[in-house]
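Worked Example 4.2. Read the sequence first, then its structure tokens.
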Amino acid sequence: MLQEIHKKLDEHYSEMVEIRRYLHQYPELSFQETKTAKYIADFYQELDIPCQTNVGGNGVIATLKGGKPGKTVALRADFDALPIQDQKDVPYKSKIDGVMHACGHDGHTAGLLILAKTMKNFQEQLPGTIVFLHQHAEEYAPGGAKPIIESGALDHVDAVFGTHLWATTPFGVLQTSRHAFMAGADRFDVTIQGKGGHGGYPHETKDAIVIGSQIVSQLQQIISRRLDPLETAVITIGQFEAGSAFNVIADTAKLVGTVRHLNTEVRDQIVTEIEKIIEGICVGNDVTYTLNYEKGYPPLINNASETDLLLQASEKVPEVKKAEVVKPVMAGEDFAYYTMEKPGAYFFTGAKLEGNTYPHHHPMFDIDERALPVAAKTLIAAYFEFQEQYG
């Protein structure tokens, strides 16, 4: 049956691309995806597949119950976009000013919708139940996964699988991990209140820029000198805002950064060290400060058994030339919440477009659309593999 499903998916390839390109032209930001959610719900209504809307916010969950007994497995696709101006010169360029599908979520949605359309044809032969999980707000914490889980809509699910079209991985390659796969991602900001003054009279001031620079430098020593060298973490300061003129010493400075980690205990150590360093520097310079630390998505930890199952399933997808276990990446993903609650695994589907070297979250981002059916085929192959092993 899997070969027949793959054949049907290939037959629907042009429709899959059409949906992806339509969504690419009409992106919506996290927590604002009402039109996209309606588009998804209307698609399932036409297929006569029951679906729930407004799950945990703008989430849409469709359920296809097979004609044979088996487990219930969720297959997830996200559908929000980013606040980026699309700069590509293509017919499907975003029509929404300042908003763009710069991460491939349009492709995730198109692939899952056509997979649902395909599987409707095999409903009576299907063992178990497929939950088509369309999640809103992956890009912006607190994200959509957590409220969907808290809604109870996935309580009956036995496992969950998901994929990300990965624009820096070659077509035909799948990548995953048996443990930590993507990083926990936090945000913090610190505002230093010094004392401004004339650029020629530094002794009469408390220079917020100099103090902020000390903080930036010292924070990097947390990674190099405070953590176990075998642990992995990143501290990045992405914004440094201060000053108003070349000859004026700034009285305030604001630093905004991110912490990436693969272990929550390491994250807790980093938070403690950040607080100690900032306090020490500010006390030493006789200035005040405010620090806000926001814990974002936890690390995405794959289940080893489901990852092995996924790797076995990928062998049944002809377009997959290589499925490899890779080191974790330090980008974040709220799919992490699903694998905290349910057995499951997440993987990258290679979607590197020839001639396009731009990464995710870039104004020129694009994907090789041939990867869409590969992602769908691998997801449904994992579904059947799970049914065989646990059904």
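Now turn to a second chain, presented in exactly the same format:
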Amino acid sequence: MDLGSLVYASELTRAREKALAALVKLAGGKQRNRALGLLGLTAGQAEELDRDAALLDAPAAEAGTVYTGVLYQHLDLASLSETARDRARERVLVASALWGVVALDDRIPAYRLSIGARLPALTKTGLAAYWRAPLAKALPDDPGALVVDMRSGGYAAAWRPRHATLVEVKASTADGKPISHMAKAVRGTVTRELLRSPQPATTPEDVATAAEKGDGVGRVELSAPAGGGAGAYVVNVIAAA
């Protein structure tokens, strides 16, 4: 991997170098049980330490193929049209505890590091706090722009726009209880519909409309910031009873 080839290289390369060095040092150290605990891994996941310890020499692939969780399964990038995939490369950023953010066509090695993990050699305040200043410097935040947020809470804590309109996509039961496992699937589906749309979403209403078109999506509600303030709009997908 070439750190200089990643998106926002001029703003984020130094922070990425430090995070990578701290992870490799922890994973390759002699205190394996301590490393497992700090990274939130079980004894049965010890092979992930070996993967992280070898990151400096590991083969790289496009981020869109490296990330394979539930959200990415429902996004199903490979099955999108070439036009939609071009939109994804232009408009989608993936939040990362190791790289800050990456674009889908950035080449990275497979790794294991969650935003809730701890890297004592890097920071005492947590990875979300570590990335806050670099991301604030790097990411665009223009008045009138629309940011659609598909991140979980830990990653969202690393950066929020101050000027752009923010729309968070969530999932809940009919009585308002969050459904975290369903939210990942919903976010992947809504991302897919946004990329398939001939016109880019420019308003929270556009995001809600895209959500309604997703396969298997239940009732959709759009709520505005409380009191008309500067908080986030929320597109909430409500599970069928």
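Notes for the reader: The radius of gyration is 18 Å. The chain has a mean pLDDT of 94.
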